[in-house]
Amino acid sequence: xxxxxxxxxxxxxxxxxxxxxxxxxxxxxxxxxxxxxxxxxxxxxxxxxxxxxxxxxxxxxxxxxxxxxxxxxxxxxxxxxxxxxxxxxxxxxxxxxxxxxxxxxxxxxxxxxxxxxxxxxxxxxxxxxxxxxxxxxxxxxxxxxxxxxxxxxxxxxxxxxxxxxxxxxxxxxxxxxxxxxx
Length: 182
Ligand SMILES: [Fe+2]
Ligand SMILES: [Fe+2]
Description:
Layout: H1 4-53, H2 57-84, H3 94-110, H4 116-144, H5 148-181
Helix pairs in contact: 1-2, 1-3, 1-4, 2-5, 3-4, 4-5
C-alpha cells in the first residue's frame, strides 16, 4: 500500500492535467472557430468591392465563385457549432480586419492602373493563406478531440480555400505569360 500511493497520486495529477488540456483545447477551438466566423463574415462584405474593381473576366469569375463559396463557409461554421452543441462567440477577427483594410487601401492606390488585377490577386492570396492556416489548424484539433462531423465540415472548406488559392496562382501566371508575350 505504501509503495502504490505515490504512484496513484502521480496518476491523478496526470489525469487532471489531461482533463485541463482537453477543456483548454476545446475552449481554444471554440475561440478560433468564432474568430473564423468573423473573418468569413467580413469577407462576404469585402469581396463585392473587390469584384467591382477587378478588370479581367477570368479574375472576376474567380472572385464571384469564391464569394459564393465564402457564404457557404459561413453556413458550414454554423453547422460546426450546431454539431458541437455550442454557441458562436461574438468576436472580431483582427487579422482579417487588417487584411481587408490593406485591400481597400490598395484598391484606392491602384485605381485606373494596369497593375490593379495583380494587386487584387496578391491581396486575395494573403487572405486565402490566412484561411488555409486557420482551417488546417481547427480541422486538426477537431480530429484530435474526436469531433468527426466538425472534421468533415472543416475539411470541405479547407479544400475550397486551397483550390481558390491555386486558381489565383493560375490566373496570375497566365496573365503574366500574356503580358510577356506582348
Ligand atoms: Fe472562406
Ligand atoms: Fe477563402
